[in-house]
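[Meeting: bench + compute handoff]

Bench side (C.D.) handed over the final construct sequence. Compute side (W.E.) agreed to return the predicted structure before the next meeting so the bench team could plan truncations. Sequence as handed over:
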Amino acid sequence: MMPHAQTAQKRQIKGRVVFETSNPDQRIGRLRLDHAWDSVMLVILDADFSPVEIYETSRSKVEEALTAPGSRARNERGALAVSKFISIAALVWSRDDQHKKPKLAK
């Protein structure tokens, strides 16, 4: 048995390369609400596939965004735009702030 099993969380981790010329409406991979997970982390990568920023948000915020009326891609495919994900998430790590201790979302 794990010593801290009651505090263990399941996180989905998604990655997205963002180029200077990238479309601002890029989408992240499918977020499946029928699977068990507590939060999602999005790793933004540069053109060299090096991490630039990491964002995290809770399942409840993702569910709210995915079930909001409007977009078929969101509602049926579970796909959020990178910009929408960032708007509902907290920045937990940045390459520019490497000396700060990351603060994970609850």
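W.E. noted at the follow-up: The first strand starts at residue 11 and ends at 17. C.D. will use this when planning the next construct.
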